[in-house]
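Notes from the pairing session

We agreed to fold both candidates in a single pass and log them together. This is the raw record for the first candidate, unedited. Please don't reformat it; downstream parsing expects exactly this layout.

Candidate A
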Amino acid sequence: MFPVIDKNRTGKRLKYLMQMKGLTPRDIQKYLSLSCVQTVYRWLEGINVPTIDNLYALAGLFQVKIDEMVVGSRQQDAALPDAGKRRMYLYYMRLCGNSSGAAS
């Protein structure tokens, strides 16, 4: 079986990243110059996934790697941090004085 993107879990991950940055779907729409905010809602609901161009732009906005936004069926995808681990990581980075929280 070939690897596939889990749209629902990817949408949840995007929603979480937006919450971490205090962004709304309208903010994302404006940042990406999308004509309709519904596009963002479709991503968050797991109906669609962003294009690679939009993923690239979002990775910069969220200060994460694209692989940290996309959840799929590959073995290595399971090793990416879940929401709880991510919160702990960001808390640790703040304690250490690195406010960006971006993975190295």
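Candidate B (folded immediately after A)
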Amino acid sequence: MVTRGVALVVDAALAQAVYLVVAASVGLVLGLADQLHSGWLTGSLAGGGWLLVVALYFVGFWSVTGQTPGMRLLRLRVQARSGEPPSAFRSLLRLAG
């Protein structure tokens, strides 16, 4: 249980770092173009972007290699009964669960 928790914290930090770099880059470009406005739409798009980055991070790593960088650090792996990494759909279900 502890190793899974540590792996999740490492992966959450990495996914958040990826999101912050992407969001800061988009914010910089929009700020330079004088198109940066705050409001509910901007907040909703930022939240949706975060959810998309996190989903792509976990589902992508699980379905391609069977482990995220945090899981690799602690030698954990997700696999189907056949021993292969789970499909993208199965990984998405895992993330939702």
